[in-house]
Amino acid sequence: MSTIHETGALGADAQRDKSAVLIRLLKGPLYLHRQRDLWQVLLREQYSIRDYFQQIGLSLLIDEAEGYAFLKQPESEEEESAQELPRLVSRRSLSFAQTLLLVCLRKRLAEHDSEESAPRLIVTRQEIHQWLLPYFPEVGNEVKQRRELDALIKKCDEMGFLSMLPKHPDDFEVPRILKAFVTAEQIVEFNQLLAQKLAVAGNTEDYAEEHTQENAE
């Protein structure tokens, strides 16, 4: 039979584990394959954890099949309202190049899921360069351009959409949480936008070439 002291100790341990989950989620996504102990606590205490975050205006999203969980702060209907809550989860403003890379990664993840059985998708720095280069103008300084692409990769790594493998600086895991941020519908919309941009760029180049030839004549 447990004593009062033992029961109190068990309660303190459970509260400490729950606090560890709360802190982890406030710092960023929680992944099953990285923190199995915390993941089990999350599933066991998810209702009380969800209630806790709802009290401070945050939604807890859990995808048990993919093995990740993260917090989302719903957008206020009245952005300028004095009653709007301070943001605990920062908004991400992505550049065109960052969006392009995320879409490429999301499309590769979809291909991986349909063709391969391995749960983890690993991509190389060279692969990412090959995906991106066709969408950038040709330049004389290729070394500088590749440095810019590497800076883009580093930024996406810092945002959590890539994860560099330990001791393998040119290999990256694509986290499955990317599926929650880039949907199939967004890929279609971005591809349409990209096609329009490429068409405009192509027309501009054709016009410049024709204009140059006319001047030469």
Task: List the topology elements.
Layout lengths: L3 H24 L2 E2 L4 H9 L1 H9 L4 E5 L4 E5 L23 H20 L6 E3 H8 L9 H17 L4 E3 L2 E6 L4 H4 L2 H33 L1
Antiparallel strand pairs: 1-3, 2-3, 4-6, 5-6
Helix pairs in contact: 1-2, 4-6, 4-8, 5-6
CATH superfamily caption of the largest domain: MukE-like family, C-terminal domain
Named CATH architecture of the largest domain: Orthogonal Bundle
Into which percent range does the helicity of residues fall?
Answer: 55-70%
Number of domains: 3
Total E-strand runs: 6
Name the shape in a single word. Answer: elongated
The multimeric state of the shown protein is single chain
3D structure, described in words:
- With 217 residues, the protein is mainly α.
- The protein folds into 3 domains: 63 residues, Arc Repressor Mutant, subunit A, CATH 1.10.10; 93 residues, MukE-like family, C-terminal domain (Arc Repressor Mutant, subunit A, Orthogonal Bundle); 34 residues.
- 57% of the residues lie in helices and 11% in strands.
- The chain has 8 helices and 6 strands, in the order αβααββαβααββαα.
- The strands form 2 sheets. Strands 1-3-2 form a 3-stranded antiparallel beta sheet. Strands 4-6-5 form a 3-stranded antiparallel beta sheet.
- Helix 1 crosses helix 2, helix 4 packs across helix 6 and helix 4 packs across helix 8.
- The longest helix is centred in the C-terminal third of the chain and has 33 residues.
- The protein is elongated and about 65 Å long.
- The chain starts with a helix and ends with a helix.
